[in-house]
Amino acid sequence: MTPDQLIAEGDAIAKKCFLLIPEVSGPVVGYWGGTRSDIPDSFPEITNSRPTKLARYTSRRHVMSIDDSLLNLLGIDRLGPVGLFEWESTDKNHQLNVDRDPRRHFKNFTCSGLPLYAIESRSFPPVEALCLHGSERIGTWLSSMGLARHEYWRVPRDQISEYEEHYSKQSAFNHQKAHAIVGGWHVMWPEDDFYIPPELTFIALTLHDAEPWYTVWYSPMTQGCFAKRHTS
Length: 232
Hints:
There is one protein chain. The protein has about 230 residues and is α+β, with helices and mostly antiparallel strands. It has a single domain (about 5-230), classed as Roll (Hypothetical protein YwqG fold). The protein is about 20% helix and about 30% strand. A hairpin with a 4-residue loop joins β4 and β5. α1 packs across α5 (about 155-170). About 30% of the residues are buried.
């Protein structure tokens, strides 16, 4: 396939996403930093001798929260507002924690952080997503090189160099004003062994204050959310 044909195949499976930016108008759909009124920075003091999970932690830092109405527009339902926090333990270690509760409502809490607003955009797929989720033409193209769809790492560089150049121009990392990107195709990081399959739902990638970058995921199987920390 020619580079233009590959790029057209990528365009065909591009996904809707939202850039969260502070310098625009419209409804507030997220907060960056600060403190949420419903989830204080400090943990309640443990007054009995029974050990609990929270007893190991001394404080938490709010990284970002996202209005679930924005997630609904991406087909991600019944999560409630999603909040990303960094917990600090008594031995000064840090752990990422994602708070989500469908009983909560974004409009019912306040936050001292920076308000974020949404701009709709399109998420162009990386090569890994193109190979795994592209049309039958992509499958045929890979077969012509003796490759299965999951063998994206074996595609010769000269076959995809122009595609990757186009992807880098479309990448979320070029949205310098955005604090985060919600929805769309996720990034494969150097520490990843494989491109995360669609059984897990990508929610968001933080861009502001990087590095590190944080990705937030939802598992329909466990009904829970989790986050990963990434460095270059």
